[in-house]
Design goal:
Layout lengths: L1 E5 L4 H12 L3 E6 L21 E4 L6 H6 L2 H20 L4 E5 L11 H20 L2 E5 L15 H10 L10
Parallel strand pairs: 1-2, 1-3, 3-4, 4-5
């Protein structure tokens, strides 16, 4: 299987990329801002070969920063999702795996959850109009043996514990 993957330098993406390659699958385009490739510029990128599936993991996921600056969700997550879906349509990629968030099921609503709900609905809309099959994944509390430098709560707790530092809790 040939695939495109965004966010392959993050926690989930780095492990998934290695696993897919180990299983004999081939990346035909890797897109990660940490390598200077922005999903907003997908229309300027070319596939090395036709792709069977597009795996979209890239997202701005720091909710506290998004609440301070909602444009981070709109630009990175919403416009990024539009860019991904148009890339799939124009390149005749017949399947997308979209990483949403379990947070969309919570009562708390904010620009981050709105951007993920929008992403899910956009995927469904493109599926209905352009016959693009999809899978939506809603991970929760992602952590693992990898420091992706996003300073997620579980990552911070684990690193502090390993280093013998205090586990700081903020809030009421």
């Amino acid at each position: 299987m040939n695939f495109v993957i965004t966010g392959h330098k993050g926690l989930i993406g780095s492990f998934l990329l290695k696993k897919l390659i180990a299983l004999g699958h081939k990346p035909v385009l890797l897109v990660d801002l940490r390598e200077g490739k922005n999903i907003l510029n997908l229309d300027e990128m070319k596939l090395s070969e036709p792709a069977d599936v597009f795996i979209h993991l890239a997202s701005f996921c720091k909710i506290n920063k998004i609440i301070q600056d909602p444009t981070l969700a709109f630009v990175n997550n919403s416009r990024g999702m539009e860019s991904v879906m148009e890339f799939c349509r124009k390149n005749k990629i017949k399947k997308i795996v979209f990483t949403s968030s379990s947070r969309i099921l919570s009562k708390e609503k904010n620009p981050y959850t709105a951007s993920k709900i929008y992403g899910e609905e956009l995927v469904k809309g493109y599926s209905a109009c352009y016959d693009i099959d999809y899978m939506i994944v809603r991970p929760s509390t992602v952590y693992g043996p990898f420091n992706d430098e996003t300073k997620r709560l579980m990552d911070v707790f684990i690193l502090n514990a390993l280093n013998g530092e205090d586990l700081k809790i903020f809030g009421k």
